[in-house]
Design brief:
This protein is of the alpha/beta class. It contains 11 helices and 18 strands. α4 runs parallel beside α6, α6 crosses α7 and α9 packs parallel to α11.
Length: 479
């Protein structure tokens, strides 16, 4: 249904305000009209009005991000992801890269990451890890003296809070700080390879946050401290991750003054479709949300700074399937309130890695090749364009199809949908539709009675749109 927003009612008009003899006179001229403006004999004054821009919502925060754990530069995909509409970059800050020797600092590597991301118009989500050997036995585990960690993160947050005091060159802004790579890991071998190692010590992780978080917030009131991103998957005994970690951490934080909400600003988790217990990212998010609610922090944001799907035929996929799954993951995530999601990653893993583990073919581009975008790249670009500024409204609510309804900046409803059976039709009460497929092909106008698209075969004031299993389309009325 067409819902034109009153707030943008004059956005397509040229408006001139003249003050004539103490009276306000409005001259409203259609944009592009070449007729002379009104001629007023009396003396006039110019009043500068706030600019009202069509298709702009200053409160909108894009949820679309990309993982760049290595360098953050054009050779690593920064420019192509900017072009694709990415507004977040998930990257790593390794303590050991900056303070390899106690008391000696070299911030240059992360300065470059933060500066480049800001120049590209992207927010930075940090995975903090890499404890130096002088400070801890493991790169992602407990430190020997928590005060060493507190001192470092205080300098770190001050350097990147863009307040003009002790900032990095260019005053880049970084506000999101998560601690350790999948800290719910309980396997020592994975921990030695760089994963977090707090799975069986949620109380210890909480104790660390109880000291680190106040220091971070004191250094920058805008800073956000997060648990995770937790894997919350592949649980013991078959896997390395400890299911009770989040519960243990939140329970322990609730014993500190102010409770868990005083020490964390959000919870981050990773998602890959490998657990049959969750049919999609929605179900996993809702389970984690329920744990948060039981511990009094159900109102805090949730973020998915790493998620992905592969394209390898050896893993039962293809480029087309990966592209479709990308759209489904992002749209489903938005529908359960995830504020930020980052796709893993720009590039496929190396051919040698993919040969051994086909699910490592998860990039938007082939290994180190930005000249041949995969279908998933075009799907990402289409997604960000079609849902730019859109607000989630509700699920579609129809049988044999899954869909989610958004309100666009223009005030129209736009639905992203796909069939859950081999094929079905979904009725829209319009005489004309604009359709966009996963990779950006536009079909418009599609009229009531169209022999290809309208499956009821009649001109009857609605279009029974034909859709197919797991093949997303963006659907909105012609306007």
């Amino acid at each position: 249904m067409k819902r034109i927003l009153a707030a943008i009612g004059f956005a397509v008009l040229g408006i001139t305000l003249l003050l004539v003899a103490g009276r306000e006179v409005w001259a409203v001229v259609p944009a592009g009209d070449q007729r002379p403006s009104w001629h007023v004999q009396e003396q006039t004054s110019t009043v500068y009005l706030p600019l009202v821009v069509r298709r702009y919502d200053p409160t909108y925060v894009s949820p679309f991000g990309i993982v760049m754990y290595g360098r953050v530069d054009d050779a690593s995909g920064l420019q192509v992801m900017k072009d694709a509409g990415s507004k977040w970059v998930t990257t790593i800050l390794r303590w050991s890269d900056i303070e390899s020797t106690e008391g000696s600092y070299d911030w240059s590597s992360f300065d470059t990451k933060a500066q480049n991301a800001q120049a590209a118009g992207m927010e930075v989500f940090v995975l903090f890890t890499g404890n130096p050997p002088w400070a801890a036995a493991l790169p992602g585990g407990p430190v020997t003296d928590t005060q060493d960690l507190v001192s470092f993160v205080t300098m770190m947050v001050e350097r990147y809070d863009c307040d003009g005091v002790n900032d990095a060159p260019g005053s880049p802004c970084v506000h999101y700080w998560s601690f350790y790579a999948e800290p719910d890991n309980g396997d020592i071998n994975r921990a030695r390879a760089g994963k977090g190692y707090w799975g069986h010590d949620g109380a210890g992780y909480a104790a660390m946050l109880s000291q680190v978080s106040p220091a971070i917030h004191a250094a920058s009131p805008r800073a956000k401290v997060l648990i995770g991103g937790i894997a919350y998957d592949y649980f013991e005994p078959d896997g390395p991750f400890v299911r009770s970690f989040l519960t243990d951490t939140l329970s322990a934080l609730n014993t500190y003054p102010g409770g868990a909400g005083a020490y964390i600003d959000a919870v981050a988790f990773h998602y890959y479709p490998i657990n049959p217990a969750w049919s999609s990212i929605r179900e996993k998010a809702m389970e984690i949300r329920s744990i948060m609610e039981r511990h009094g922090v159900g109102d805090l944001p949730m973020i998915c700074p790493e998620m992905g799907y592969w394209s390898a035929e050896e893993a039962g996929s293809s480029e087309a399937i990966q592209a479709r799954r990308l759209v489904q993951m992002f749209v489903r995530g938005i529908s359960v309130g995830l504020e930020h999601m980052s796709w893993f990653t720009v590039f496929d893993a190396s051919p040698e890695q993919v040969a051994q583990y086909p699910t490592e073919e998860h990039g938007l581009f082939p290994y180190n090749d930005l000249t041949h975008p995969k279908q998933s790249y075009y799907a990402y670009q289409t997604l960000t364009q079609e849902l730019y500024g859109a607000r989630y409204l509700q699920p579609l609510g129809t049988s044999n199809a899954e869909g989610y309804v958004f309100q666009t900046l223009d005030g129209y409803e736009k639905t992203v949908l796909w069939a859950t059976v081999s094929s079905t039709s979904v009725s829209f009460p319009y005489s004309c539709l604009r359709l966009v497929d996963t990779t950006g092909n536009v079909y418009s106008p599609v009229y009531d009675g169209d022999p290809t698209w309208d499956w009821d075969g009649t001109v009857n004031g609605e279009i029974a749109l034909g859709v197919y299993r797991d093949t997303p389309f963006y659907v909105e009325p012609c306007h």
